[in-house]
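Supplementary Methods S3. Complex input for the T3D-bound model.
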Amino acid sequence: MTDMHRLSPPEATIQVAQRGAVRVLTLNRPSALNSFTNAMHAELRAALDDAADDPAVRALLITGAGRGFCAGQDLNDPAMAPGGDGRIDIGAVIERNYKPLALRLQSMPVPIVAAVNGVAAGAGANFAFCCDIVLAARSASFIQAFSKIGLIPDCGGTWLLPRLVGRAHALGLALTGDKLSAEDAQRFGLIWQVQDDAALMDTAWALADRLAALPTKALVATRRALDAAQSLPLESALDVEARVQRELGHAADFAEGVTAFQQKRAPRFTDR
Ligand code: T3D
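Predicted complex, serialized as structure tokens:
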């Protein structure tokens, strides 16, 4: 098995490591269920930018340290303190941290696997849903915790939830804030697979390795085309398909894929 190289100091709130072509980011504030602070958001942004810029990275794996995945915004973070006028500007927190996070994930030039190892609440749940393929431990759960503290779903939740589960389930989840088991999340179509707790990380690594060996450009173009098609009429989506296939057809990976098929050997994809 390829060695894992640690790329961050042990005290970092985002632990960064590389194994083969997979960059793994581990949310690392386990005593607060890896809830997001301002500082952690800054580290996460830097880690995502770094992974995006590094040609050695062909897939990203995101998980949490300890018993939780991410409990959303850290409600004790100084970012939540009232300003000079005595009011908390949550809009500023969203604009500074959660909007860039959701957009960064959607524009990552590599596929992203989330391994949800425990509870994912509030923005922590929607952060996971922003990833391309979500695996969850059987003991994990998902909570749209926002309504309980007088907020609406953020980190892309209003956009993602109805697309993933339809309006009825999206409203049911968001209005009640009820905890959804990993199995129900899979049944609803929120996530890809549930794994036994002990198998989660091995399965997630195997999936990330598999994705890393596939043609990266085509995987990322697939995400973009699917997302774009959500707001397009059929004819326009077909136009996007034609344009993107034309571009991919000129890429080295397509030639390699076809040649490898004809030569009955495994392909070696290199585009990114
Ligand atoms: O600025 C903005 O607010 C805008 C952005 C909003 C985005 C959002 O994410 S809003 C939603 C914020 N998140 C929540 O409301 C979830 C709050 N947490 C919970 O409801 C529960 O902790 C869980 C259901 C997630 C898990 O429950 P349980 O019983 O397994 O664990 P616990 O005992 O509640 O939590 C363990 C520790 O983590 C505990 O600390 P302690 O007492 O051991 O020192 C708890 O305070 C801490 N913790 C959990 N979630 C948060 C947190 N600390 C700070 N912020 C949290 N969100």
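The chain has a mean pLDDT of 97. The radius of gyration is 19 Å.
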